[in-house]
Amino acid sequence: MRINIKNKKAFINLFNRLYKNKKINTINGLTIDSRKIKEGDIYFPIKGINFDGHDFISTSLKAGALVSFSESNNRKKKVINTKSIKNEIYKLCKEWQKLSKSKVVGITGSNGKTTLKNLIYNILQNKYNCSRTFGNYNSTIGLPLTFLSTSLNDDYCILEYGASKPNEIKKLCEIVKPYYTFITNISNAHIENYNSFNEIYNTKVDIYRNTHTNGIAFINNDHIAINKNEINCNSIFFSFNKKLNSTTIKDIKIPNHLFHLKDLVRSAAIISKTLKIPTNIINDSIKSFNIPDGRGNIIKYKNYRIINDSYNSNPKSMELAIDRLDNIHTKGKKIIIIGDMLELGKKELIEHKKLSNLINKSNIDIILTFGTLTKHTNKNINGSKYSKHF
Q1: How many whole angstroms separate alpha carbon 87 and alpha carbon 71?
Q2: Contacts for 190 with CB less than 8 Å, ≥ 6 apart
Q3: Which residues, 6+ apart, have CB-to-CB distance to 194 below 8 Å?
Q4: What confidence tens digit (pLDDT) does each residue in 94-117 have?
Q5: Residue 335 pairs with which residues in a beta bridge?
Q6: Is 208 helix (H, G, I), strand (E, B) or coil?
Q7: 191 close to 197: Cβ distance less than 8 angstroms
Q8: Is the Cβ–Cβ distance between 45 and 19 less than 8 Å?
Q9: What is the per-residue pLDDT for 102?
Q10: Which of 68, 172, 211, 335 could form a disulfide with 366 if both were Cys (CB 3.0 to 4.6 A apart)?
Q11: What angle (nearest 5°) sits at the alpha carbon of residue 195, between those of residues 294 and 175?
């Protein structure tokens, strides 16, 4: 990952204030990937599972890096030694937020984070200066680096807060404090890294507990059960299964290509209206919005309609995909092709067996499964349906 620094003078002043013995007089960008180094970059070598970025410090400096950090007591002139490179990134990020006028819109959840982030950005950019997370860079490294790439004059910055283990959302909120927050939903995604669903739930809900005291937590009662007393900020509760707040979204038009994401669209509308975006702009932005690749795109090929819903599946996203296909009206047959759901830990067999129950209740005609885990889905499919495992 590599990012460009937009407000170069401000960053140089900030860096030189923090690192008086390694002052810089220019800056281009920041990177954790030595292969992406450009002249005038700062290099942050990260120790990964397969590679250690420290092995490429010399290469990065030769390629034009101004400075490199190191946890290995490197004696080179252009190296800043530290106990924790991540903490240096966090320190820069926290100081950057102090300088920024941007209010951070923080989004988390098991499904729909990237789609909702892009949708809100698509709406807000019509009135405000905005930035957003690159792709799905929402980790303890990706999120702070993304924020360091934002302009100090942005009005809003829409960031994904991801968590693959307990307490990560709280940690991310300490690095970049969100002003407006929303959880799309909570399911068993990545449960192999947690002791229980309750631990996942508390990790996600931490985004509400750590919202800026003057900010707003947007809470969908259909998915999240949280007491107002648990959070220290303003809050807007709503539901799409009840009449609560229905007047807020009744004039929002959901186009056919986004109808399977109607709850995300409505949530984006509520957040955007709160941020004073006119209804006509919201509707125009929704109409022109294109779904990110792999998240339900419709491909027309001859007499077939193919739905590309291939992005990193989990039980909730699979449930939504089955429900979407079940509710599509067609004269032809409905075929679903399913691959293994990963990172489910001890629940992997149970969750794959559950899929067969959902499919058996649907009007899906043909089920094709691929992988080592989906064979447990396939063998429980009703005999009235055609199914085959690969």
Answers
A1: 11
A2: 163, 164, 165, 200, 314, 343
A3: 165, 166, 200, 203
A4: 999 999 999 999 999 988 888 999
A5: 366
A6: helix
A7: yes
A8: no
A9: 96
A10: 335
A11: 65
Strand partners for 297: 308
Q: What is the DSSP string of 269-300?
A: HHHHHHTT--HHHHHHHHHT--PPTTSSEEEE
Half-sphere exposure of 257 (CA within 13 A, CB side): 15
Tens-digit pLDDT profile for residues 194-236: 888 888 889 999 999 999 999 999 999 888 888 888 899 999 9
Residue (of 192, 222, 191, 226) closest to 207 by Cα position: 226
- Tokens found for residue 86: 């991540």
Tell me: the pLDDT tens digits for 46-57?
A: 988 888 999 999
Say which amino acid occupies 133: T
Output the six-digit token pair for 184: 């799309």
How, if at all, do strands 29-31 and 42-43 pair?
parallel
- 191 CB-side CA count, 13 A: 20
Cα(390)–Cα(388) distance, integer angstroms:
7
Report the DSSP beta bridge partners of residue 68: 43, 79
Helix (H, G, I), strand (E, B) or coil at 241: coil
Q: Shortest CA distance to 98 belongs to which of 201, 211, 11?
A: 11
DSSP class of residue 52 equals B
pTM of the predicted structure, to 2 decimals: 0.81
Cα separation, 132 vs 147, in Å, equals: 8
Going by pLDDT thresholds of 50, 70 and 90, the confidence category of residue 249 is: low
At residue 98, the 3 state secondary structure works out as helix
Are 326 and 345 contacting, i.e. CB atoms less than 8 angstroms apart?
A: no
Q: What angle do CA 110, 321, 255 make, to 5 degrees?
A: 95
**Helix, strand or coil for residue 107?**
strand
What's the pLDDT score for residue 328? Answer: 84
The token pair that represents 73 in the structure block? 């007591």
**Beta-bridge partner residues of 112:** none
